[in-house]
Every structure is written in C-alpha cells, then in structure tokens.
Write the structure tokens for this entry.
Amino acid sequence: AQASLPVHPRPGSHSRRELLLSIFASHCGGSRLISVLSNQSMNPVTSSMSAAESDFLYQVWSFIVAARLELSLFLAALLAHFLLFGNSSPQKSKKKKENAQSSTPLTFSSAKELEAVFAEAAKAGQHKQVLQCWAASKKLNEPIAVPLASVVEVMQRFKKEPDFIQKEIYSFLTKRNGACNMAIINDLLDSLAKRLDSDFVEQVVAMLPTGGFELDEHSYEIMLTMYFTMRSFDQVNRIVQETKQKKVKLTTRASLVIIKAALKQENFDDALEKFRELKNLWDGPAMQGPSMAPRHIVAQLVDMACKEHQLERFLPELARVPLSDDAIHLMVSEVVKNRDLPLLKQVEELAKSKNIAFSESTYSQLIKGYKGDDVKVRQLFEEALEKKPDAGPDICLAVLNCCSQTRNFELADTCYQHFADRMPIATLSAFIRFHFEAENYSKVCDMYEKDAAPVRQQAESEGRSVLDARMERCVMNAALKCGRSALAQSLLTENPSDVAKHITMIRNAAAEQNLPAAMDIFASLKKSGAELNSVVYNTVLDACVECSQLEKATSWMDQMKADGMTDVVTYNTLIKAHLQASNFKRARSILDEMRAEKLQPNCITFNEIVNAMVSSSDWQVRREVWGVLKEMQEANVKPNQVTCSILLKNLNASSPDSDITQTMNLISNMEEQLDEVLLSSVVEACVRIGKADLLNTKLKQLMSGDSIRVNGSHTFGSLIKAYGHARDMQSVWRCWKEMRNRHIKPTSITVGCMIEAVVSNGDPDGAWNLIQELGEDPQCQSVLNAVIYCSVLKGFTRERNAQRVWAVYEEMQKRDIDLSVVTYNTLLDCCARCGRMDGVPEILADMKQAKIKPNIITYSTMLKGHCQIGDLTSAFRLIKEMKEEAGLVPDEIMYNSLLDGCAQASLADEGLKVLEEMQEAGVPPSNFTLSVLVKLMSRARRVDAAFEIVNKLSKKYKLTPNSHVYANLVQTCCFGRQLPRALKTLEEMIQQKVQPDKRTYAMLFRAAVQQNQFETADGLVRAALGLPGALHFLARAPTLAMCAGIEDHVISETLAAMQGYPDGNKVAADLLDIIKQKKPRMHVDPASCQRQSDSWQTKGKGKGKGKGKGKN
C-alpha cells in the first residue's frame, strides 16, 4: 500500500538530475546508466527506494566535484611515483635493501686482515663488527690475536646468557692451538676485575687447567687487586697462601696490595714483614719514575706505627727507604703529641739526611715540639722563612704560641713584621665587615669607594659579580648612619627598573628578618615606574611570612586583593603563614576563600597543609592529616609523589602502625608510577621505622616480578643506602658490582650512597680508594662532587686522621670541586677533634675567599674545639665575635659546649655563670645540659649542688631526667664515696621508669667493691643480669632493672675484684656458679681480668665499712 503512494519531487529536482546525468555520462560513458536513471527520474510515480538511490548518487557526485582538485593532484603524484620508482612502497624497499646489506657477512682475504680489523673494531667500540670478527675467527685454522676481553664485554652488552659466554671462552681455551696465551687471558681477567665481577673471574680461572694454562704473577696481581677493592680479605689471604704454595714471585704492585690488606686488617707485624721484603726493590729504580705508590704505602705504615705506638721500633727501617714530606709530618706530629724530644730529634735528623723539604705545617709542629728553646725556635723560624717565603699564618701562630710561654717579645715582633704586609685577596670584604661592626662607618664607606667600587665596576663591565649582598648591605647601612646618603641611594637605585634585582634584595632582607627594608625596596621599585606583577607582590608577602609577621601578611593580602594581584601562589603563601603560626583551622578555612574567588586549590596547597600537620608536635593535629587527604581526594586533587614523600619522611620507629599501613596503601594505590626518588623515600622510611620485615617486603617487591625492575642508578643507590644502613656490606658490594657489570653509569646520588655506606661501616680508606678509581674513569669523573668528598672527610675526621683529611681537601681543590659550608665545617670539626685549632685561621681564610659565610654550626664547631683543648678564653671571645660580627645568637649546643669546657677545666663558678647567661638569653636547657651540669658539679666535688641543680631545672623547665642524667648523678655519688645515695638514686630511676644503662651499673659495681659492700655488689650484678637475688627495690621491677648491653668483661672484672678479698671470695664464687648456670652463653673469666681488678682493690682497700648491703 505504501509503494503505491505518489512521490512528489522537489522543485527543480528534474533539471538538476538531468544536468547531473549528462555530466556523469560525458565523463564515464555510461549510456545504460543514463537510461536507467532517466527512466527512474522521469517516472512521476516511483518507489521510495529509487528516490533514495538518486539522492545518494547526487551526494557522491557533489563530493567528487568539490574535491576534484585534490583527487587530481593525488592521482598525478601516484602516477609520477610509479613512473619514477616503479614501486608503490619505497620505504619498504629501502629498508629491505639496508637489511640485506647489513646482513651480508664480512669477508677477509687473509688472517692478518681479520686480525687488523678485529683489533680496530675492539678499539673503536664497534660491537656488531666485533661479534662478526669473532664468528669469522672461529672458522680459521691459523691462529690470530683475539681481543678476548672486548668479545666478552660485547657479549655481555648484548645480553648473552652467562652459560653461552662461558662455553665460548671454554671453546677458545681448549680448541685453538697457539691462538691463546696468558696475555690475552690476563686482559680478560683485568677487564672483569675492573667491573668487580669476581664470580666470572673465578669461572675463567677454573677453565684454565683444561686449556693447559696456569696463573702467572700478573694474574695474581689482578685478582689480589680485585679482592682488595671489594674488601674480601679472606680471598686475599687465600691467594697469598696459594702463591706461597706454588712459589710464584709476586709483582711489586701485588706486594703493595698485600701490604695494604695487612694495614686494613690492622696487622702491623705482617705489613712490616712484607715491607722488609720490598725494601730492596724500592731502593732501586722502582722509585725513580713518577709512581708514588711506595711512598704512599710507607705513609700508611708510618700512620699505623704511630697509632700502635711502634714508631721508635719502625724508625730504623726507614733509613734506606724514600719518604714523603707527609710521612715526616705525621711522625713529627706524633712525637710532638707525645712530647718525646729525643725521638723528635731523630725524626728531624732522618728527614734532613734524605734532603726532605719540610712543609709549612711540619715547621709549625717542629716549633711546637721545641717549645721552651728560644734559640732552636728562632732557628726553625728563620729557616722556614728562607725556604717558605710565602708561608701562611700557621707558622706565625706556632711562633706566637712559643713566645707566649717564654715571653720572647723580640721574636714576636719579628714574626709580626714579616706577616703584616701579606693579606689574602678575600680579606677586603672581611675588613669592611670588621669596621662596620666596630661602628667605623666612615672607614667602611672610604674603603668601599676606594677599593671595592673600582673592582665592582670592572667586574660588572666583564659580566661578573665579585661583591656579595652582605657587603652591599653593610656599606648601605654604614652610608646611612654616617650621613652619606648619596652612596646609599646609589646602591638602592643603581638600576631602578630592574625587577629581578629588587626581588633578590627583598628576599635577602627577609632572610635577615628585616621586613621594613623589604618594604622600602618595594616602595623604591614602585616609585621607579617599573611594571609590577603578582610575582613582586608575592615576594613581599613571602617576606612577611619569612619574618613571622602574620598581621603584616594579612594586611598585605588585603592590598593585593585591592590591586588585583592575587593568584593561587598568593593563597598558598598565606596558608604557609598560618601553618607556621600553628593556625591549622584558619589555614584550612582559606581553602574555602580560594573556592569563593574561583581559584582551585592544587597539590601544592594540600601538600603544604599535610607537611605542616604531620610535622606538628601535637598528636591530635597529626591525627587529622588523613581528613585533609580525604578532602584532597574529594576536591579531585589526587595525592602525588610529593604527598607520599611528605608522609614517608615523618615516619619513624614511634609512628603508629595505622599511619604506616595507610601510607604504604596510599603509595600502592597511587596512579603515578613509582619513580626512583619515591622508591628511595620508601626504603629510607622503612629503615627509620626499624621494621626489618617491612624493608624486606619492599625490597622483594622491587626485585621480583616484571612490573618493577632495577634498571636505573638511582634505584641502585636506594638499595645500597638501605643495605649500608643495615650494615650488610656484602649486599652493598653486590649491588655496586651488578650495576657496574650491567654498564649502568652511576650518578652523583648513587656514588654518594655507595661512599656513605662504605664510610659509615668504618672503611673510609676503601671509600677514598673507590673515589680515586672513579676519578680515573672518564665516564665517572663528572659525578664526583663536594657531597661525596665530604662523606670521606667526615670518615677520616671521625678517625682523627688529620693527614688524610687535608689530602682529601687538597684533592678537592685540585679538581675544582665546588666547596660548601658543610665542607669547611667538616674541616673545622677535624681541627677540633684533633686539637689542631691553629689550622682554623687558614680554613676561615679559605671560606672568605670562597665567599661562604660561617653559620651557627661553624661557630659551634670552633667553640667545641677551643673547649676541648681547655682554651676557654678563646671560646668566650669567639662567642662575643659571633654576636657582634655575624649577628648570630648562641644556641643550646654552644652553651652546652661552654659548660662542658668549664667542667673539663673544673671551673664550677664560671659554668654557673654560663648557665645563668643561657637562661637569660631564653635558651631552655635540656637533659644533655643537666648531664653536663652534673659532671661540672662532680668535678668540683659538690654532690648536693648537683642534685639541687637537677631538681630545680627539672621543675622549672618540666624536664624528666633520662638515663644519662641519672648516670652522672650516680657517678657523682660514687666519686664522693656516697654509695647509699647512689643506690637511692638508682631506686629513683626505677620508680621513674628509667632503665639503668651499662655505665651506671659499672660504676656501682666498682664503688660497692671498693667500699667492701660485696653483697650489695652481688645484688647489683644479679639485677643487671636478670638473675634471682637482686636488691629488693630492683627485684620489684626485674625487666626494667635488667641491662641487656652489659659487657662480659665488666662482670669478669667485678668478680675478680671481689675474689681479692677474703669476705668477697665466697660471694664471688656463688655468683659465678649461678651465672654459669643461668647465663651459659656469657663468657666470664675472672682470672683473665685480675690485673684490671687490682686497681680496684688498690683504690678501695681498707676504706669500707665491712660487708653488707648498705642502706638502700
């Protein structure tokens, strides 16, 4: 029925269709199609299907007509390509041609040609060509020189299976007559050893007998060097024994390695034995070349001889051995420290017999050694000036030290006249700051205009900057104070439209807590007509926050709103201000204000809040951090890696398990991929938490599966750091070896983690050797930085090895390493630990030359050094200079150092004055302060005063004394022969839930035995070991009273001392029996400690009141 309905065509549709058909027919010649379409179009009654087909063809043709130009160009290009190339896919043909060409095997006309190409490919690093030459060489019958080391390295680079590589090596060793020799094998071993691939080295060594090869002296040298680098001393000793059995004559370098190993194992006798064997070699031409290795070994032997106090025994061995000036300096320093004048003369004669020129520091030590002999001191001083005309202040300080003792003013004047006209270049800014602090403002301006301004103008013309901001501020303030406003205005308005410079000045003013100056700089910039933006406004707002001026920040925020300069950064800065003031509710309310201003909080906004909350000391605030994270997710702001890092850095051993679990779950559900930085944070957090199972779980997750693969040096650095913290040096070296074997270039962070792991595990020499090896590697030279060197500096500093510290410092200067304030603080710490405060001025001069300002740690370190050597005068003068010149305020650490210095010098009254000054300065004391004060009173035998100070300060500052405070109180009672009071203090510790440490028990043991209180000593020992029969107040809390860290030798010495008395013998015997029964793993041997216990008896014999438990 529907098909019979008429279809009414659109107006004009017939004409358009006829025209379309005629055009289409003219192009396509489709007469039949024309007739069909014409019949359909001319029929007034057609089906709906016919009408649809007509409309479709009309639309197709309309498209063709519209795109006729593009279609024509396409067809023309296709035709031209076909005519030119005859192929419709040129790229594929080209690629096939290249593949065919690359797959064509190389052909060689002769074995010599193959050998030459092989060597050239190995030298140029053409890895594919090396493999092709290797394949071709296997088809030859005549032998050629094969670079086997390069072949193995290329196979490893192409990820060949280890079994395949071993089969190739085995085939080469066994089937090629004349093609292989020990030189080629040693090259392979050397290549593997440099990568510390010890497993592969041992596999190659195991193959050698099948090919009829034996290790020679060079092979053993390679293996010894490798195992020494890995600190595998068991393997070194094994190889040494093997060479002795096979009677292999070792090379000089191998012998040096053996000596180094003996030195590292602190086996002076073995090192000396091997040294004597090599002396004849070193007397000959071995020392005529540029190598300094023997002298270095001699220096290490000298170092060990000094440490073991064997210098007098070792000195004759050096008669025919070349020595360095460092070795002479080390011996002189040791002799001077021991005040052995005859031995000092022998060392001086030995150095002069070898024509060794003394260094400046050596002359200084010699002058100190001859203190009191004015004639000798003057002779050495004149000799030093003759041979060291550019000598620094070190010699001057040594001479003045001698003059202060002998009152030789003539020599002191001579010394001053020589050094008066010699000033370092960097002293210009120091003079300006000195006169400024002395309120010599006119002098400051004159010096600036005369000396500094011309240098500045010349430097600026060359595009450099030589004057720091601190000097400019000093000159500016001095000019304002002395009325030279023109100079001050020139400094402020020299570039009035330089926005970046004014922003820097605003930030510098904020760093000095000088907000008015920051506001003046902004006003000056605004007055200049410069175009201001939100960055400038935000800098001023940040200055308000930096200066802790919340009200100023709020008012400035209103000004920014009025000027239309607010953005997301503005609100983030204001949030930071409220967070610093602990206004967490106000900070969170600002989020609503941001949304009202149609500004969306970002990750930085939430991360600021999260960081402040997790760092808060209020546990209720910390608990609300998960609510902030929930709000963050509801705002469609997903936690990122920074969020997770903030949460991780605040996890520690005392963190709740719920926080640890939620943090780890957040990391697991994070959409961003776990990167190396976050991985390092995860590992470090696990280490801080102290849960081995959590750390192992994360490490297993890292090492297993395909989702996470260790393929970056940062990841290896994280693993090395974790294993180093766990003191698993075997895993540390395994990770390092794997990274090097896989040819992954280490970054500075990775090398820093490795060096820190080695140093922290007590091997700074190994870390220093590793740095030197990396310095010789062209690919790794650039990764060495100041942080890495500082780790080694700190390691040698902890060992009080000043010679190695200065050697590392000199190496840093030679390599142009950018030094930081941390580096100089480490050097100062070395001077403090070694008691060489005369080297401080040189370090401070270097800091000034490097334009590095001392910080509070710098002054604290110098103060500690002065206090340790008992120079309290210099210590108090340093405090004054720090306040006046640097504008710094002493902190608790510095006051504690002063108190400790007073304690060492037994200056109780002076120490109490320091305590009073500390409290007046608003610096609250801590438990460490209490422990030092108790020691101060103990030295002065003021037992009552010690307890009074602890009680008074504990109540005033709400302190709970810890084990160190109580231990010092117990020690004070023991020194005052007040054992009952000491036991009363111990009882108070138990009542306050403070566990006694091993030092407390050791002092009580000794005091009880010395006062013949054997049963009291018996009860104390039983309590410390958790045995029945303890003193009654200790028996009430056996777990708290037990001391797990008490050493076996302390118990042995106590028993031995008790056995020396008739009344104590039986008590000691009964105690020994129960210890053997209840503590079978404890090694107690009173007989071996009899000599030590004799000193106890000598001090306490005849002064006790008889046996008994005493008053407790």
In short: Residues 752 and 787 are 7 Å apart (CA to CA). The two ends are 122 Å apart (CA to CA). Residues 441-461 form the longest helix (21 residues).
